[in-house]
Amino acid sequence: MASATGIPENYNSNDAAPREGLGEDEPLLGRRGDASQEDGQPIYKNLWIGTAPVAQAGIWILTAIIWGAIFSHPLIFFSPHPLLNTTALLLLTQSTLLLQPTHTRPQKRLGTLLHALLNTLSTLLLLAGLLIIEINKISHSGTHFVSPHAILGLAFYILIALQVVVGVTQYWVPSVYGGEERARGVWKYHRVGGYVTLGVGVGTVVAASWTDYNVNVLGVRHWGVILAGVLVVLGVGARVRLAKLGWKRG
User: Fold this and answer.
1) What integer pLDDT is reported at residue 241 of this predicted model?
2) Which pTM was predicted?
3) Which of 6, 26, 139, 155 has the fewest Cβ atoms surrounding its Cβ within 10 A?
């Protein structure tokens, strides 16, 4: 029988011990142990194992670039929008890195709770950022969803909403899906959706460097945000384990 976390009740943590050679439960890059939380290891260390430092470098550089550009110019009503959204993306990245390497039932339970907490904070920041940009657009009679940044931003908000609904119901209300076993089947799609959402979020920030506000006011260099975004995607993507997505590596 499976629990709401998608882990069989008879799960043996010894099954998660590192194996030699390639396997379907290994990350895309590196050995299996490079992206697996060891028994007894504090969960915060998940933020640094494997290729996590690459993702950390990318997201902190990206955040620093945006925050530095905003605070080096006079603050206006619009200013909190990029500040809130980049902070939300920073939290989303941390929540992903925390949960990724978990593989035993206790690890997954704690990882899921922290993942949910960080994602809740991130969602609240995104909602505040959305409110600010909408008020700003209405006050200036601006157009909506025309630029690539705006279109990606809309997609990002929609994906976040879907991820929140699926994540909450799958874990805490599995009866919505007809029981724990079916909810477990939804879990892998939620995980895939999380990676897609994070990628779209990074793309949204990168696309912001082509907006009129950045080109005419902030002057953030395209190459800087692109490089930082690539580091985030590579660092997180390299730790993906195909077995957790329901796929097998040949």
Assistant:
1) 83
2) 0.85
3) 139
